Amino acid sequence: MIDVEPSKVVKKGRVSPGKMFLVDTDAGRIIDDEEVKAEVAAANPWAEWVKGNLIDLKDLPEREHVVHTPRPSTSASGRSGTPPKSSRSC
Q1: CB atoms < 10 A from the CB of 56, how many?
Q2: How do residues 15-55 score in pLDDT, each as one tens digit?
């Protein structure tokens, strides 16, 4: 936090989820979400990296199929999730 004179406040608010901003103290400006993301996207050859590292699922090696068997569920008391059978006769 820094103290800023109220007359110098340009913008107030919250940063929404997935959004960001950059304070460029050298240039004395605030760079908004769209500009930051555009600069990052343009800075590296993302499409080239994806193209060079893309793997087609059919090219993956075969793997052993594992079958998981469900365990009986237990309640907090440690008993199974099914109600006990009655021992009373009618």
Answers
A1: 6
A2: 899 999 998 999 989 999 999 999 988 888 888 889 999 99
